[in-house]
Specification:
CATH class of the domain at 445-566: Alpha Beta
Number of strands: 27
Distance between the termini: 50 Å
Strand order of the largest sheet: 2-1-11-10-12-13-14-15-16
Oligomer: single chain
Number of helices: 19
Largest sheet: 9 strands, mixed
CATH superfamily of the domain at 445-566: ANL, C-terminal domain
Shape: globular
Radius of gyration: 25 Å
Structural class: alpha/beta
Length: 569
């Protein structure tokens, strides 16, 4: 039951947790509309079975295994099985398109692709035809449909039927053997957005992940006097994507360190109902989720009813953590007023991810908390946040140039601006890199989307907006010559009293073109609204550099009214 802080690898951590807490409830997952539990021993049996199956598919020490799935029990089992073989997990975000997924699978050199089911499998028809050497395995298969070519039968059914046969004969699987990993061995490759749109594979080691989870737990334990040792009655509700490092470290691996219980929400839409069922004591989320909770209470006119927030989150909630985007102060204030601390942290994929965190006793309004134990943070002369320590990635996969740009003398250059006060609290003041982070915590490369948009002959220039917003919008400069020609060809009848860029039919045409140009990217990268401008961005107005790069802040300031109009209800 005690926390485990001295393990060197994830397989060691998992094995020791199973040994310590064999018959304790470990995880809750939904089947048939209700939550069902598994003990640590039962998880270990399923992980050993899955590891054995992966071995039959040829997975060995150092091989890459791609994992494309929504959050579910099998995601957790697959990650632990991959680690137990000393292989490398390449998790892929479920909303991505087939083209994006295929690129990551090929770039990583994955040998096996684990898929949640036919919906994800259908995205990869082209890859299956082009790469017959790859093995595709689904967790679920639709019995009413013929199995897709090149896809193995249901892995989930295989695990359960195999364990049932063992049980009938009074046997069980031995725990997975230690694969002989070194703490410096790469545990995972996570693809993150780059400014040009081509993702970079972040290589995180066993030591990166273990140290980050342990130090985060120690930060919270420092609040307790004496420090808590038994977390077996605590329940973490996970709903953030496990394919992102935030949930993977701060839900999955902290669960192993603490020995708490992990409940996996059925979906993002069922979180409140799932909270009522499992009664969590802790949850991680992004500001957008917490804002939705607050707005829901406001709509029901119970916002300031004493205890209503704790009640709607299951009745036992002790604290919530926020990451992935800046936490608005009004949300911080509301949760505090309801007696449920909403604690902001800061980090990035390249730092495993936690750099700093707030705790109930170490918290300051507007701050991202203090650096966790073992992590150094300093502010460069230009205001950029730098960090070093055991949490810093090994580098970008097959990309030494990009690695050298961000790692210098063991310091990780975060690309974010910040400051530290005299008490050591870190404040994030802006972003140096051209990456949009939505209020839902999605990282989006605007330059890539803009390059897709300006491929259209009707679009001369484009600026995508969405930082700390819940959807993307765009300012578009029409190519007037091409537009007039397009309208003439199609015989469009437009009133002559209004400028072209303001006419509803023209605006509808451009939104259609935007949708067509972005059909190849994921749902959260779609531009939901656009505004046409009467003239181009220019150097003279300070909107472009001498190299003709867009000055985003200047443009956003110049067109603040137009931007705000796209976010009004």
């Amino acid at each position: 039951m005690a926390i485990l802080t001295d393990c060197k690898t994830i397989p060691e951590l998992f094995a020791r947790r199973v040994e310590a807490d064999q018959d304790q409830t470990a995880i809750w997952f939904k089947r048939g509309g209700t939550f069902q539990p598994l003990t640590w021993r039962e998880i270990s049996q399923r992980v050993s079975c899955l590891a054995s199956m992966l071995t039959q598919f040829g997975v060995q020490l150092g091989d890459r295994v791609a994992l494309l799935s929504e959050n579910r029990l099998e995601w957790v089992l697959a990650d632990l099985a991959i680690q137990s073989l000393g292989a490398i997990n390449v998790p892929i975000h479920a909303p991505l398109t087939g083209e994006q997924i295929s690129w990551q699978i090929v770039d990583s050199g994955a040998k096996v692709v684990l898929l949640s089911g036919p919906a994800q499998s259908s995205k990869l028809t082209g890859l299956k035809a082009a790469r017959p050497d790859l093995t595709f395995v689904e967790f679920d298969t639709d019995p009413s449909q013929p199995r897709a070519p090149g896809v193995f039968a249901s892995l989930l059914d295989g695990i359960e039927s195999f364990l049932n046969r063992l049980k009938e004969h009074g046997k069980s699987l031995p725990p997975a053997a230690d694969p002989g990993l070194d703490p410096t061995s790469v545990a995972t490759i996570l693809y993150t957005s780059g400014t040009t749109g081509e993702p970079k594979g972040v290589m995180l080691t066993q030591a990166n992940l273990i140290s980050n989870a342990v130090s985060t737990v120690e930060m919270f334990r420092a609040d307790d006097d004496p420090p808590r040792e038994d977390y077996s009655d605590k329940v973490r509700l996970n709903f953030l994507p496990l394919s992102h490092i935030f949930a993977r470290t701060c839900d999955l691996y902290i669960w192993l360190v603490e020995g708490s219980q992990l409940a996996i929400a059925e979906s993002r839409e069922t979180v409140i109902a799932d909270a009522a069922a499992v009664k969590p004591t802790f949850m991680n989320g992004v500001p957008y989720f917490y804002d939705r909770v607050r707005r829901g209470l406001e709509d029901k006119e119970v916002l300031h009813q004493p205890g209503i927030l704790r009640q709607v989150l299951g009745g036992r909630i002790e604290q919530c953590c926020s990451g992935g985007a800046a936490l608005p102060e009004h949300l911080f204030d509301y949760f505090q007023s309801q007696g449920v601390p909403l604690l902001q942290g800061y980090g990035l994929s390249e730092s495993s991810p936690v750099i700093s965190i707030s705790t109930p006793k170490t918290v300051r309004r507007g701050s991202a908390g203090k650096p966790i134990p073992g992590v150094d943070v300093k502010i460069a002369e230009d205001g950029e946040i730098l960090t070093r320590g055991p949490h810093v990635m090994a580098g970008y996969y097959k990309n030494d140039k990009a690695t050298a740009e961000i790692l210098k003398d063991r310091w990780l250059y975060t690309g974010d601006y910040g400051r530290m006060d005299d008490d050591g609290f870190l404040y994030i003041t802006g972003r140096k890199k051209e990456i949009i982070v939505t209020s839902g915590g999605k990282n989006i490369a605007p330059v890539y989307l803009e390059s897709l948009l300006t491929q259209d002959p009707l679009i001369l220039q484009a600026l995508v907006i969405g930082d700390d917003r819940n959807y993307l919008t765009a300012l578009l400069v029409p190519n007037m010559d091409a537009l007039v020609k397009e309208l003439f060809i199609h015989g469009a009848q437009l009133p002559s009293s209004e400028p072209l860029h303001l006419q509803p039919k023209v605006c509808e045409l451009y939104q259609k073109r935007v949708n067509e140009r972005l059909a190849c990217v994921s749902s959260f990268e779609q531009v939901r609204k656009c505004t046409l401008l009467p003239g181009p961005f220019t150097i003279e107005k300070g909107e472009m550099t001498a190299k003709l790069s867009l000055r985003r802040k200047v443009i956003e300031a110049n067109f603040a009214a137009e931007i705000e109009a796209m976010y009004r209800k």
